């Protein structure tokens, strides 16, 4: 997992819960990196899971809800750092449907060894999209949060449902309808 995911996560934890919480979750975790991350480094997903688990335990907030909040934060980072990607699109459905064929290609230019989830579009109209998320990492709520922020970015309301295809969350169907 790319280091930017870790550095931004710890920035969010510090902003929302304080530096003491950052120290707490790092110290309680058994991190190969020692909790020292660079945005261009690559780290094991197990480290993110440990940090999320300890943050959830310390705050009483579910991991899914933490991932939603983190996705909102991460979207703002993307919006600031890579505005040209967002400016390519005029519609949230178009943007979301292009995750695999455009956005992930751009991400790979910056982070060639990034392990990204896949998004398979099953059905798409001007007002709806059905897609399958697949990842060895069950971070579908992170994807959900990014989708929510995408619609917000375009000042458009939507209903986004997710159905777990696999109970562990590594394969999920997103059903998205503009309101």
UniProtKB/TrEMBL annotation:
The name this protein carries in UniProt is: Heme NO-binding domain-containing protein
Q: Where are the transmembrane segments?
A: none
Gene3D superfamilies named in the record: H-NOX domain
Q: Which InterPro entries match?
A: H-NOX_domain_sf, Heme_NO-bd, NO_sig/Golgi_transp_ligand-bd
Q: Which Pfam families match?
A: HNOB
Start and end residues of each Heme NO-binding domain = 2-161
Superkingdom of source: Bacteria
